[in-house]
Amino acid sequence: MTRESTFRPHRVVVLALDGLLPFELGIPHRIFGRPKDAEGRHLYEVVTCSVRPPGPVETDADFSIHVENGPEALATADTVIVPASYELGPVFDEGVLTDELAAALARIRPGTRLASICTGVYVFAAAGLLDGRPATTHWAEAEHLQRLFPRIKVDPDVLFIDDGDILTSAGVAAGIDLCLHMVRRDHGSAVANDVARRTVVPPHRDGGQAQYIHRPVPETQPATTTAARAWALGRLHEPIQLRDMAEQEAMSVRTFTRRFREEVGMSPGQWLTQQRVERARHLLESTDLSMDQVARDAGFGTSQSMRQHLQAALGVTPTTYRRTFRMGAADPVVTP
In this predicted structure, what is the pLDDT of residue 254? Predict the structure, then answer.
């Protein structure tokens, strides 16, 4: 069988529900519609469907959209994405699926990857798919989600959660982060970064980064840690101490650490490790450097240290990661 005959793009089916937010409906089409392989073939096929036969679906705006696929499209999906809706009815109010929605979800094949944007998480929660698992949603709905579904481990602060076969995200822009994360997981950071550049969004915001939740503060703090982060990014291959970063902003270590957490949602040390992991991923994907050289250039010092950090962050060794994504760059994606 030839490569041409075995190639099939990963099929993403987006479930459009009444009351949907048009912006969030468009996110999967924008992100997954971009990636191509070396031969110019789209790596994903994106399809929108409804729980009803083809026809109009109401939005939260002053227009409706015409969806050309019914629920049978869900049976063909490799990934199903449920964007936010403001008219979930008993799903949101009582935590139960409507007969129509339950019948649609029953068409999804076992093993299909599931993802939600914002309040789309209520659909999976009402179906019992998140019991005992971590999940997130828009911070304004997190308390209600936890109260309605006490068996879910709701994290109200993060941008998105990747729990393997089910991924959930906070609202709006976090949906972009989630979709880019799935592209990165499928095809590596080089492909995801290219999509991000074409979409004019940051290439990577880690899922553990805090949502932008309003919390009262004593007064406006004009100083930021932006310069320190830029300084550190240019020196990832060097040893970087917390006091060195604080000095870039003329702050005490204590003040800098507090301000950094407020702005980034994690400690400076966690952020540095995250950036070094991203640097190592890029080098493993795009160069033939030895493991020792990659470790030095990424700032881990030794290949053993790099191995420990990548294993913790990605669940794979550097060798396995390189083999996976270097092969992926050379070969077409074949979805069984």
Answer: 93
Do 210 and 157 meet the contact criterion of CB atoms below 8 Å apart? yes
Residue 150 · residue 132 · CB < 8 Å: no
CA distance 191 to 197: 10
Closest CA to 141 of 120, 165, 167: 120
Q: pLDDT digits over 223-259, tens only?
A: 688 899 999 999 999 999 999 999 999 999 999 999 8
Q: What is the pLDDT of residue 329?
A: 46
Rounded (10°) angle between helices 268-286 and 253-264: 60
On average, the pLDDT of the chain sits at 87
Is the confidence at residue 162, as pLDDT, over 80? yes
- In this structure, the strands spanning 10-15 and 79-82 are parallel
The strand pairing partners of 80, in sequence order, are 13, 114
Q: How far apart are CA 212 and CA 264, in angstroms?
A: 10
- Which residues, 6+ apart, have CB-to-CB distance to 222 below 8 Å? none
Residue 88, phi then psi, degrees to nearest 5:
-85, -10
323 CB neighbour count, 10 Å cutoff: 13
Q: Are 43 and 26 in contact (CB under 8 A)?
A: no
Residues 6+ away with beta carbon under 8 Å from 8: 334, 335
Q: Which secondary-structure segment (H or E) carries 271?
A: helix 268-286
CA distance 237 to 283: 12
From first CA to last CA, the distance across the chain in angstroms is 14
pLDDT at 83 over 90: yes
Query: In angstroms, rounded to a whole number, what is the distance separating the alpha carbons of residues 243 and 153?
Result: 36
Extract the tokens encoding 156: 């109200």
Which SS3 state, helix, strand or coil, does residue 159 take? Answer: coil
Percent of the chain topping pLDDT 70:
89
As a whole number of angstroms, the longest Cα–Cα distance in the chain is 67
Q: Is the pTM of this model over 0.90?
A: no
Give the Cα separation of 82 and 16 in Å (integer).
7
